[in-house]
Amino acid sequence: MEGNGIVNEIGDVNLSYLLLAQRLIREDRATAMFRLGLSGELAELLGNLSLSQVVKLAASSLLLCRFRFDDHAILSSLTHDGKDIALQQAHAAILLAGQPVEEIR
């Protein structure tokens, strides 16, 4: 029963992520690609999914979004208490701009 609850929560996160991604892509594709770390090809694909396709994809038991800070040093520098919030956000944007985008494989 516990495992089933986790799978349902993953599905909820997936659905929220996919709907947010679609909204961002449809409103401002370039900004969405930067914020989500997506290639143009993947942004195009996600932006064109129908609602039924989004719901079906979201039902996966695998988390579809990924944590973009996979480097301990980057995450530590962004959470350092000594910086003000504006500086932290600017630093995050600079670091993320250097990250490779997700591509369709």
Q: Compute the gyration radius: what is it? A: 16 Å
Total helices: the number is 6
Which range best describes the helical content: under 10%, 10-25%, 25-40%, 40-55%, 55-70% or over 70%? 55-70%
* Biggest beta sheet attributes: none
Order of helices and strands: HHHHHH
* CA-based shape: globular
The percent range for strand residues is under 5%
Spans of at least 5 consecutive residues whose pLDDT stays below 50 are none
Average pLDDT figure: 83
Terminal residue distance? 34 Å
The count of DSSP E runs of length 2 or more, i.e. the number of strands, is 0
Q: Structural class from helices and strands?
A: mainly alpha
Task: Explain how this protein is built.
The protein is mainly alpha-helical. It has helices at 2-27, 29-36, 40-47, 51-58, 72-78, 85-97. α1 (2-27) packs antiparallel against α2 (29-36).
